[in-house]
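To the wet lab folks,

You asked to see what we're planning to order before we commit. Fair enough. Below is the target structure as tokens, and below that is the sequence we designed to fit it. If anything looks off to you, flag it before the synthesis order goes out.
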């Protein structure tokens, strides 16, 4: 049965098709940004250079995504958080500082949680509960 595809093969092909679509959309977006920046700065960028920049940016984004996933897994989480993103930027001081600033701004704008931590009985309360008062007779 050479003509019949297995479920794993079909899933792999769907993943590859989705990845290719994502890569194409990413390429179009980066080329559009490059063209807009070139126009704004009265410059010209050749098509091969734009394609090269686009491919490099996509490869960088892929590696960044893999690193973020590994950082989250290492921390025992299934999702990436802002600290993972900041950690990924540790080689670029300016980017790291910008991300930390953004993170602090977002935290400042975030409404404080209404949920309060449950207070357990204090040590003094436990000690007082174990004392038995005997009335004077």
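Sequence we intend to order:
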């Amino acid at each position: 049965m050479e003509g019949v595809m297995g479920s794993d093969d079909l899933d792999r092909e769907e993943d590859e098709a989705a990845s290719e679509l994502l890569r194409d959309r990413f390429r179009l977006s980066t080329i559009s940004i490059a063209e807009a920046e070139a126009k704004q700065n009265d410059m010209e960028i050749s098509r091969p250079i734009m394609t090269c920049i686009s491919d490099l940016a996509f490869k960088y984004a892929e590696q960044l995504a893999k690193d973020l996933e590994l950082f989250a897994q290492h921390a025992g989480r299934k999702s990436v958080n802002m600290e993972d993103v900041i950690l990924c930027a540790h080689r670029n001081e300016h980017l790291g500082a910008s991300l930390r600033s953004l993170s602090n701004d977002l935290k400042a704008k975030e409404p404080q949680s209404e949920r309060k931590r449950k207070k357990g009985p204090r040590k003094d309360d436990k000690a007082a509960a174990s004392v038995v008062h005997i009335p004077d007779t």
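Structural context that might help your review: Residues 68 and 121 are 40 Å apart (CA to CA). The helical segments are 7-40, 47-74, 82-88, 93-109, 123-130.

Thanks,
Computational group
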